[in-house]
Amino acid sequence: MRLLSTKTAFWVVTFLVLSSLSLISYWMIPVEPSSAVSIQIESGMSLSQVARKLEQKGVIRSATALKLLARLRHQSNDIHAGHYLFVAPADPAEILARLVSGDVELASLTIPEGFDLKQIAERVEEQHLGESDRFLRLCNDPQLIASLEISAASLEGYLFPETYRFTPGLDEKELIRMMVQQLREALDKTLLKDAEKLGLDRHQLLTLASIIEKETGQASEMPIISSVFHNRLKRRIPLQTDPTVIYGVKNFDGNLTRKHLTTATPYNTYMIRGLPPGPIASPGLAALQAAAHPAETSYLYFVSWGDGYYQFFVILKEHNQAVRRYQLKRR
Predict the structure, then answer these.
(1) Contact in structure between 95 and 54 (CB atoms under 8 Å)
(2) What is the DSSP letter of 2?
(3) Do residues 135 and 175 make contact, with C-beta atoms less than 8 angstroms apart?
(4) CA dist list (Å): 214 to 206, 226, 283
(5) 109 in helix, strand or coil?
(6) How far is CA 222 from the centre of its chain?
(7) Which residues contact 266 (CB under 8 A, 6 or more apart)?
(8) How far out from the chain centre does Cα 16 lie?
(9) Which of 102, 217, 226, 242 could form a disulfide with 80 if both were Cys (CB 3.0 to 4.6 A apart)?
(10) 3-state secondary structure of 90
(11) Eight-state DSSP code of residue 31
């Protein structure tokens, strides 16, 4: 067998090295996705599986390049599971850095103040984060409620209104637990202790705060409205608040009638004294603070002017005159 001459061998090695370098350089060129690429990396996937998936989706040119880079950096076992979104061009080093740091795409869910369970469940389904019916069933599941250390018939009022950002893939039960945990953080010990001084336990605090939340979206008005309700509770005067009546009407059509006001339900605060059995919606922090820290007033009545603001009264006669003026103005 003839051996290659030293000169020939040199050029062969040089060619192989240059070819390899050219190939590696090509592999390292950033790929620009033709459109946003969404990839789910499951827990337990190997580096080879991840690299192959990225190559198939057109995020990188070569799975081999990513694997070699990860091994050189001793990061083969450092890949984080999750949902990744690739939009901008990136070379394998940048892709690997994202995978190692766990730079996953976060889902977003906004629950406004004053939403009730049905509205929250609908929002969850609208955002494709779960099924409305299953979400509602879980919110009324005694086992789940007990596991959350809540003494209530449902989780109405216990899902804190907030904008949540989280890793996609959470099921309905995990979403509920996350919202309840957020409420626990909002209900700090000082707030609960201040509520106790007024004779309100946690459930009663949430109930009163939810009524305040449904009465007005103006945070500045909340402490005064709270004072009216506290004054009425002390005097054993019915709260007489429309939002509770509406909550107790099945399939409410938007038109509150005299019949509704005179039909006995656990939530008809025109007919019962004290607070209804539980919250009617999810109160925000301002409403919770107002329920535990009412303004110091002697007011017993208020009239809404339809713009989020109110006029307050101590004397019933003055209140009734204002109601008539408001009704005439609307006509």
Answers:
(1) yes
(2) P
(3) yes
(4) 12, 12, 8
(5) strand
(6) 23
(7) 248, 272, 276, 277
(8) 57
(9) 102
(10) strand
(11) B
Which amino acid, one-letter code, is at 156? E
Tokens of 198: 């007024």
User: Helices in the chain by DSSP H: which ranges?
Assistant: 6-28, 47-56, 63-72, 92-101, 117-126, 132-139, 142-147, 172-186, 189-197, 202-215, 222-235, 242-247, 258-262, 285-292, 316-330
Residue 111 and residue 180 in contact, taking contact as beta carbons nearer than 8 Å: no
Q: Please state, in angstroms and rounded to a whole number, the distance separating the CA atoms of residues 134 and 277.
A: 24
- d(CA 169, CA 260) in angstroms, rounded, equals 42
Tokens coding 181: 């945990």
pLDDT tens-digit map of 163-198 = 999 887 789 999 999 999 999 999 999 999 999 999
Q: Residue 208 is encoded by which pair of tokens?
A: 């009163």
Determine the length of the chain.
331
Q: What is the mean pLDDT of each run of 10 residues along the chain (331 residues)?
A: 54 44 47 72 88 87 85 88 83 87 87 98 95 98 97 97 88 96 96 97 98 94 97 97 95 90 95 97 98 97 80 88 69 48
* Residue-wise pLDDT tens digits, 123-149: 999 999 999 999 999 999 999 999 999
